[in-house]
């Protein structure tokens, strides 16, 4: 299937399978995959390492200047790196998950991440996932998808993901973290999570990844009148 040179924006709630779906689309269509959430997670890990998060979870204003020294990237395998060192596992812990949403609500953090995303996406043919890609980062994206799934399914998926990596997790704690992040992400002042009016809704509670790919191919064929 020949896909035009577009940006595909995949937004939605935490743990709805955005990144798995976005990665698979990128592979299937020969696009670059960019995980915006990984950048917010990397900023959070960096702030933790620099001791810029206080005990009450408030963030020191020094983070703003410190961001000037943060070199965050993806390597060839798409793994997140800080100063060229892979931090993929470190950014996926519950410790980072529990502090990322307040950090992602800071306007200067959002500016930092948006700038990096635009730099990395400059070549086009990109699938990007996050919370505000279709509404703020790439409002002119060629295709916008908004993903959702039931809370039970989402919590179960994240729980299995964590335990498969050998990280200790409790399903109730995972659920609570997802609910808290949904709330903060949807209610923050700067660029809150909301569905773009021109996005296609995908509820994948009862879908396999193969069915998701068939669904998106159908959407692309209809939208761009692709015949092959
Ligand atoms: O994978 P998961 O759904 O847990 O979240 P993520 O995509 O790794 O993003 C982690 C957090 O970063 C989210 O809960 C949001 O607080 C924030 N985020 C955001 O504010 N805007 C984005 N475009 C992407 C993530």
Bound molecules: cytidine-5'-diphosphate
**End-to-end C-alpha gap:** 5 Å
Helix content: 40-55%
**What average pLDDT do the residues reach?**
95
Unreliable residue stretches: none
Structural class: alpha/beta
| Helix-strand string | EHEHHEEEHHEHEHHEH
Strand % is: 5-15%
The radius of gyration is 17 Å
What does the largest sheet look like? Answer: 5 strands, parallel
Q: Largest sheet, order of strands side by side? A: 2-6-1-7-8
Strand count: 8
> What is the number of helical segments per DSSP (H or I, 4+ residues)?
9
Overall geometric form: globular
Description:
With about 230 residues, this protein is an alpha/beta fold. About 45% of the residues lie in helices and about 15% in strands. It has nine helices and eight strands. It has a five-stranded parallel β-sheet. A three-stranded antiparallel β-sheet has the order 3-4-5, with helices on one face. Strand 3 and strand 4 form a beta hairpin. The mean pLDDT is about 95. Cytidine-5'-diphosphate binds next to helix 2, helix 4 and helix 8.
């Amino acid at each position: 299937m020949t896909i035009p040179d577009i940006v595909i924006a995949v937004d939605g709630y935490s743990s709805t399978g955005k990144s798995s779906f976005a990665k698979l689309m990128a592979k299937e269509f020969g696009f670059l995959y960019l995980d915006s959430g990984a950048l917010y997670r990397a900023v959070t890990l960096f702030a933790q390492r620099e001791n810029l998060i206080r005990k009450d979870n408030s963030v020191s204003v020094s983070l703003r200047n410190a961001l000037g020294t943060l070199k965050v990237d993806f390597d060839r395998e798409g793994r997140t790196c800080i100063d060229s060192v892979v931090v993929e596992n470190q950014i996926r812990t519950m410790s980072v998950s529990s502090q990322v949403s307040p950090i992602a609500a800071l306007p200067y953090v959002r500016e930092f991440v948006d700038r990096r995303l635009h730099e990395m996406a400059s070549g086009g043919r990109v699938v990007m996932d996050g919370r505000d890609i279709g509404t703020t980062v790439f409002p002119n994206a060629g295709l916008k998808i908004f993903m959702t799934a039931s809370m039970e399914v989402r919590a179960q998926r994240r729980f299995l993901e964590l335990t498969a990596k050998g990280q200790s997790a409790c399903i109730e704690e995972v659920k609570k973290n997802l609910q808290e992040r949904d709330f903060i992400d949807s209610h923050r002042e700067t660029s809150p999570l909301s569905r773009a009016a021109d996005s296609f809704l995908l509820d994948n509670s009862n879908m396999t990844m193969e069915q998701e790919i068939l669904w998106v191919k159908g959407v692309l064929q209809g939208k761009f009148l692709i015949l092959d």
